[in-house]
Amino acid sequence: QRAKLSLLFDRYKHKFTTFPKENGWLGEILYMYQGFWLMSKTIYSVETVMAAQDTFRAHPNDIYLVSLPKSGTTWIKALVFATMNRNRYKNNNPLSTDHPLLVSNPHHCVPFVEDESFRTNPSYRDTKSPRLFATHIAYSSLPQSILDSGCRLVYMCRNPKDVLVSLCKCLDLMTIEEAFGMFSRGVNPYGPYWDHVKAYYKASLEHPTRILFLTYENMKLDTVRNVKRLAEFLGFPFTEEEKTKGAVEEIVSLCSFENLSEVNKHGDFRSGVPNNIFFREGKVGDWRNHLTTEMGEILDQITKEKFNGLDISF
Ligand code: A3P
């Protein structure tokens, strides 16, 4: 994987190493590419995004789960994977012991578009239809074939204060003051936060049958209702019989923070990246334990100005 990334870096570096840059959150450089801050030499990086733009080919039946890092990507991957595959595992029972979500990380079940190691793997071409992918790529930077193919996208948005705290606390490499300063300036992986969210929100209003806009907070509030909505949107509606038998509740419970964090307590997702890095508190409003009231107010003010009347509430 490292060797493949190095090759890619070498192939694309002449294009981006002169772009504006900032020190990143993980001790590496963030490059400004097409208006968004991207890391380098990781699987979600400026060079893998460029490679995806050059070579990724969407199919009309594909489904894409889109989010900013720390907005609930892992959770939405699990929920959609479990919903789409609910008849595939033993006895139609999503809780049967052969279910991938009981033994592996949701990120292994749903690959990222910008994961070069996956795309160069031959199994990528064999994936059955509809294919399910995730991506953090900004709307305006999506590979053109995703926009042209008419396929469906689900966008998971989260309160910026919780995204900031989740980012800062997942590795704990910087102080909350430093993290607040960078995030407020829009410098976070795939940020600025507000530009990323706004573009998908507007696109969801323009193309309501193609793009579903969800929030982490609403998902927490009523997961069952939102999973039913998701299933309908994606073309996998639950039958009345399934609903009566509690199939939706089973999926919600399989994908709960408690269950997934237990399954992923040990082991590595990739070399040097522990499975449990994707699971911390799993709560709404944890920012109150880390940001000052003043920091919260400043972020609220920025959000109000940037969203400028858009009906996005958390
Ligand atoms: P916190 O750091 O606030 O706990 P991502 O998957 O986009 O990296 O987002 C990670 C955030 O989602 C973390 O938030 C993590 O704890 C939370 N999360 C992970 N799995 C979850 C689940 N099954 N239900 C709710 N939240 C979950």
Automatic annotation (TrEMBL):
GO molecular-function terms, A-Z: sulfotransferase activity
Keyword list, A-Z: Transferase
SUPFAM superfamilies: P-loop containing nucleoside triphosphate hydrolases
InterPro entries: P-loop_NTPase (IPR027417), Sulfotransferase_dom (IPR000863)
S-adenosyl-L-methionine recorded as keyword: no
Enzyme Commission numbers on file: 2.8.2.-
Enzyme class: transferase
Ranges of residues in domain Sulfotransferase: 60-309
Transferase is among the record's keywords: yes
The family this protein is said to belong to: Belongs to the sulfotransferase 1 family.
PANTHER family listed in its UniProt record: SULFOTRANSFERASE SULT
Protein name: Sulfotransferase
Organism of origin: Centaurea solstitialis
